[in-house]
Amino acid sequence: MKVALLAHDRFPIAPPFSGGLESFTWHLARGLKCRGMEVVVFAAPGSDPELGIEELDVEPLVLSDEARNDVAMPPEAQVRETFSYLQVMRAFARRPDIDVVHNNSLHFLPIVMSPAIPQPLLTTLHTPATPWLEPALRLTPTAPTVAVSDSVAQMWSKVTPARVIRNGVDPHEWRPGPGGDALVWSGRVVPEKAPHIAALIASKAGWKLRIAGPIADRHYFEARLKPLLNEDITYVGHLDTQQLRTLVGNSAASLVTPAWEEPYGLVAAEAMACGTPVLAVARGGLSEIVRDPGGYTSQPGASEVETVASAVAELPRVVALDRTRVRHYALEHCSLNVTVDAYAALYRELVSA
């Protein structure tokens, strides 16, 4: 079987990953290859050459000065992205060697154009409903979909009956660590991930905190997070996988503090695979994966003060969890092998249908 994986064209599929979607696509591609499948990927330029997979190329956007000077000119990135996916979908129509297309792009065009290609197209819903994807799925009611958690499936239930396949992490990559005397927060530094809440929790509880991840929103970093940094609350940068694994494994607990309905929470699974217990604000799918003995959730409050107070009250029993049991919980409930096997089985189901 040959599978085409569609990512978005903003970030390459290569470590250090810009976010969970890039990590998911990279690990899925590698897992499918290990199961004897051929994999074709469309993503931003610069994807990991060590994956040894075919990348779908598209022609760069060319606009005349006259077109650029049109007063109705939309953002150029939006135009470029739309025509990139248009080219990709036209390429699939000429590729009978590809058996199934797996869409992780968060873009509407692959969905609405799926009836025009010979392959079945499966879309994984990595986010709550968006104003682009929702109408696309309403226009294409037979398009098969997967949700990354029960929470996401429920969010989309009025639009599409999504099957649930939870994300997973590679336990050989995320290995046990000894713990340490500080907490850790990892992920994209953006308002919806809310690392400033983690900083407030650590400060209120009297713990050191190390924050790692790409700064995807510079204004948020400067306005909300940077004022909270000091000798005990530090930002350590965007780390590669090995550096991040060491940091997480050498931490007493991981804080996951979303200010939105978190679809899954891959960083929580990564931490638990390292034996590091998780304290997560109970938003979205986090309550499905962060459970005793892997960690505990705290309830979001009506204000940041209440959210912080609830988490501080839970922190002592989180850091007291047995790291060996945390690791075993992750192996049982957050394994990448289970995720890849489930997608491979679904691909076969779609092709045979």
UniProtKB/TrEMBL annotation:
GO terms for molecular function: glycosyltransferase activity. Gene3D superfamilies: Glycogen Phosphorylase B (3.40.50.2000). Keywords: Glycosyltransferase, Transferase. Residues 184-312 form the Glycosyl transferase family domain. The keyword Transferase applies. Residues 19-172 form the Glycosyltransferase subfamily 4-like N-terminal domain. The keyword Transferase applies. InterPro entries: Glyco_trans_1, Glyco_trans_4-like_N. PANTHER family: BLL5217 PROTEIN (PTHR12526:SF595), GLYCOSYLTRANSFERASE (PTHR12526). This is Glycosyltransferase involved in cell wall bisynthesis. It comes from Kocuria marina subsp. indica.
